[in-house]
């Protein structure tokens, strides 16, 4: 079995390859000096690698490779462009291939906060007007990293149902293919407002779902860890048992909808893991209880793991992966039990995705 | 009328290697109009110089006969016959 891990950083993309998920060969940088906030493997037909790239000088785009980074293709005309006055693409935060039943469909979440849909595998995208025209939009504010749609969760069965999350703004859901959207933040706290339970305006950092449980979602919030069992209508805290309720990442096990992984960070005003200890937390019971995973992970780890810098692969015993602002990347070949360093001394890691190559 | 655009090395992958481009632009000509003409032939260059609203990218400088366009009239800076537009990226960052 060969596994490839794509590591998007603030200054380019690296690719790590392993047969045993313990020892790794790393090559890069691809797209040197470009921010790679979004990376995705599209394994619906072959293996396509998509990267949301952004040069601070020459602007953003989407780059595609069908040969695992040997060659890259980027269209001459901008693949994602705002067709409305007063907005221009600043950065692609999320690239999300749709389920296999919708070949060619890839969603993109952007800064400023908007959603785009591709029907040709990511070569060109169409603007989703319904979200842009939402009456709440004038009140969506920028988080520290900018105002962006950073999370897209397409329903595993119904192509008309999609959930997005944005900072700030929170969770929005469509059931009609993107024409209309409803805020879905009931139970998610926004402590930074005088009314901490608003309809929208939350700073939801990440939402994840398992395809076999389409009405269940997990969310890591800007303080708060939540689960919804009713498709996002209401959210309940699952933070008990974690050392802190702050963090960015939220990842679901590929074969078990009750198993989730997160990387707790002490507080919004103190963005280090508690006591500087690098720890992934895992729940086997949908967030009712948590256990720290530490075998092979360091102490004195004064850095943080960003919202898209954690993932799993899809192997029978899945691997778990994360990268840090300090440019370190770790892999676990056994669902988080033990960890091995994949790379170190890279630029700030912003996105990590893994794929098992077809044999 | 004709104006000349000088392309920096880092952007010549988008101009098939060309360092100088002669652009034929209708009068009265402006910097934006010259860039529009250039975009028709080299869309991959244009997206690195301007966003989709034709806004000049912040760290790309456009010198019109030696003067940065933002000290003149920006994209609306008028061009005379034979004007030279030198594109120079200001590569900032850490």
UniProtKB/TrEMBL annotation, chain A:
The UniProt entry's GO biological process terms, in alphabetical order, are: xyloglucan metabolic process
Q: What are the coiled-coil residue ranges?
A: none
**InterPro entries on file:** WD40/YVTN_repeat-like_dom_sf, Xyloglucanase_GH74
- Superkingdom is Bacteria
Q: Which Gene3D superfamilies match?
A: YVTN repeat-like/Quinoprotein amine dehydrogenase (2.130.10.10)
Please give the name of this protein: BNR/Asp-box repeat-containing protein
Automatic annotation (TrEMBL), chain B:
The record's annotation in SUPFAM superfamilies points to: MoaD/ThiS
Q: Which residues form the signal peptide?
A: none
Q: Which Pfam families match?
A: ThiS
Protein known as: Molybdopterin converting factor, small subunit
Provenance organism: Lentzea jiangxiensis
